[in-house]
Amino acid sequence: MTQTPTSLVESTHHASDMSVRSDLTAAHAHVWEKLAAPGTWWNGSERLAVAEVVRTALDDPNPIPPWDSASNSGRLPNDSVISPELQDAVYRLAVHAGTLTEEWYQKMRDATGVTPQQWVEIIEVTISVASVLRFAQIAGIERPDFPEVLEGRPTGQPQPSKPAKHHWVPVVHLEDVTPELAPYYDGLTALAPVLRALSSVPAAMDTLATLGNAQYIPMREMIDLNWTRGTLSRRQIELVAGRLSAHRECFY
Amino acid sequence: MMLRASSAANDLTLDLDVVRGDLQDSDAIQHAPELAALVDASINDWESLPSARAALVEATDEATMLDAAAVVANFEMMTRIADGTGTSHPADRIESMSDMFDSMGLTEFVSARL
């Protein structure tokens, strides 16, 4: 019998002899349920094709330089449902995100034809795979396989996103909140730019919030500079966060 | 940066070199060397991950190691969101943190969208 996306994650977490927090297992299961299912702008096959590029890139012990083409290197499938140009963009996002520039973004959009919202959804797939697989690798537990594709059409649900001052992609501003974004916007007078970055695709906001709440700090606890789960102190959390970000050469 | 803010909130002075440099035990951040070693191994040296993981468990406990792994995973996410969407800081925030950016060499990053 085919395993469900949730059972793929649960079986790997439970197979380890460690006690992974149940809310963390649930968060990873939630994004695995969405991984190969129809999204907002991509279908399940296309989302899985993006996920496969991300996994290949993350596993690459000797990644190709950012200026080279991964699709020409023989590392990626040549029968993918996504174009070689998009495979290249996904590979670079997965392993060389710190090298991306606005000029690259515009050229990538010209070469691939993706809309900003489609790019945001590609980022969503990328962060789902990076979160689940990197956690397993670092914790020393088995990695879950990818789920099977769920057939169906993308929802195509638009949002009132507008050009943004602090992003290449358009975002939904706080004053334009929609019912889909209310869980992330309601009651807030400001929201850090990085937390608004995916707002043109609410399903991507759901992924960000679900993973962030379980892996880092619940969004609404962020202002408590002494927040802890009883394991890492807030300063220890921020040391890990800052050091990882510095390794990735992420200025933000 | 939240590390500076969370230290200041507790009247602790923190050398921000902890983010990029070699680490010693400090009162401000317990088990900083073991935490940093796990992060470093996850990026640069996958073969040393088991020993880094074991050292952190020995210094703390299994639940703490798992939570540290989860934070690493989270910032594998956040760095790709920020750099994939071209997210930048508001001007007032950049100004307030410019001393830190300069001293840590962060403005040399390609991703420094100033």
Automatic annotation (TrEMBL), chain A:
<dbReference type="InterPro" id="IPR029032">
    <property type="entry name" value="AhpD-like"/>
</dbReference>
<protein>
    <submittedName>
        <fullName>Uncharacterized protein</fullName>
    </submittedName>
</protein>
UniProtKB/TrEMBL annotation, chain B:
<protein>
    <submittedName>
        <fullName>Uncharacterized protein</fullName>
    </submittedName>
</protein>
